Amino acid sequence: MENAKNTSDRQAVPTTCRLDDIVGFGRSTAVTFGVFDGIHIGHQAVINTLLERAAQHQLMSVLVGFYPHPLAFLAPERCPPLLTPLSKRVEILRQLGIDEIIMLSFDAQIAAMSPKSFLEQVLLEKCRARHVVVGYACQFGKDRAGNAQRLAELSEGYPFDVTIVPPTEINGAPVHSTRIREAIAHGDLHCSSQLLGRPYTLLGHVVHGDGRGKEIGFPTANIDTQRQVCPPNGVYAIRAKLEEQWLDGVLNIGVRPTFNGTTLQVECHFFDFDETIYGKPVEIVLVEKIRRERKFPNPETLIQQIRRDVADAARILAESTHAHRGVS
């Protein structure tokens, strides 16, 4: 496989690959591997160590990410919701300066590998690893039989060294993706931002709704966020990136109980904006929750509340410093 720096044009739309698709590298590498959902500050510590080891030993830095989550293949009913879709995951990883990013499809071939087979077929044969960097909680191989310590033991018989990165802790507890999902699900956006090292964002495409927002004077863009973790139902002050344009607005997550709705919807009202944007991708930065969702006695009362929500969001966004237009 060629160096990612020489193939950026062809990588504009990230895709996964199978193991057989990896042609090989022209030089030895420092490698890390894992799911990397969220690319939180713990992941960033692993990646920074990878880049340090690569520089020290004059190696090419390589990250092998598994996508989708292994549980999506092994036990879909237990697969957690996403923090970071594939396109955003690759975008953030590229910004961190890794030479080559491989998003490997987690399939039957990968799932059946023993830890030793994974080491030989993926790390050595495909990646030409001379140094491997993993987090303290690393698991790999069939039935998760391999871990960081096992990798270090196995490496003694092979031509590569291993660095195990200790946990990154916030408020006395290790940072991990499950903790971030729980924080978002409980509406603790401050905690999720701390653990991620950036504000949490929802990504999706604008889809057709029933036009009710426009009927009451507040047109909305309905967003299909697919399997991403959503915070609790309610109204949020947001900033959104639509192509190269940044927009301020309010986001409603909920079922619209005033109209006896039952289906969860994610819909944005952008300030001073009136364009047709169906099908376009949008990234939503959640800045602050304004209120919980509740049922109003009639549409007129709801309209009055939305006016207050808009005013509150405008004030919050004007004052905010933790959510900015350069968020990645």
Q: Helix/strand/pairing class, anyone?
A: alpha/beta
What's the name of the CATH homologous superfamily of the largest domain? Answer: HUPs
Mean pLDDT: 92
The CATH architecture of the largest domain would be 3-Layer(aba) Sandwich
Number of self-contained structural domains:
2
Query: Separation of termini?
Result: 27 Å
Count of individual helical segments: 10
Helix residue percentage: 25-40%
- Percent in strands: 25-35%
Order of helices and strands: EHEHHEHHEEEHEEEHHEHEEEEEH
- Largest β sheet strand count, sense and barrel closure: 6 strands, antiparallel, barrel
Low-confidence regions: 1-12
Please count the beta strands (DSSP E, at least 2 residues each): 15
Radius of gyration using CA atoms only: 22 Å
Strand order of the largest sheet: 10-11-14-13-12-15
Principal-axes shape call: elongated
Main CATH class of the largest domain: Alpha Beta
> Would you tell me which CATH topology of the largest domain applies?
Rossmann fold
Key descriptive features of the protein:
2 domains; disordered N terminus; elongated; Rossmann fold; 15 strands; 328 residues; alpha/beta; 5-stranded parallel beta sheet; Elongation Factor Tu (Ef-tu), domain 3; 10 helices
Topology:
Blueprint: E1 29-34, H1 41-56, E2 60-67, H2 70-74, H3 86-95, E3 100-105, H4 108-111, H5 115-126, E4 129-135, E5 139-140, E6 146-147, H6 148-155, E7 161-165, E8 169-170, E9 173-174, H7 177-185, H8 189-196, E10 201-207, H9 212-215, E11 221-224, E12 234-242, E13 245-254, E14 265-270, E15 281-292, H10 299-319
Parallel strand pairs: 1-2, 1-4, 2-3, 4-7
Antiparallel strand pairs: 5-6, 8-9, 10-11, 10-15, 11-14, 12-13, 12-15, 13-14
Helix pairs in contact: 7-8
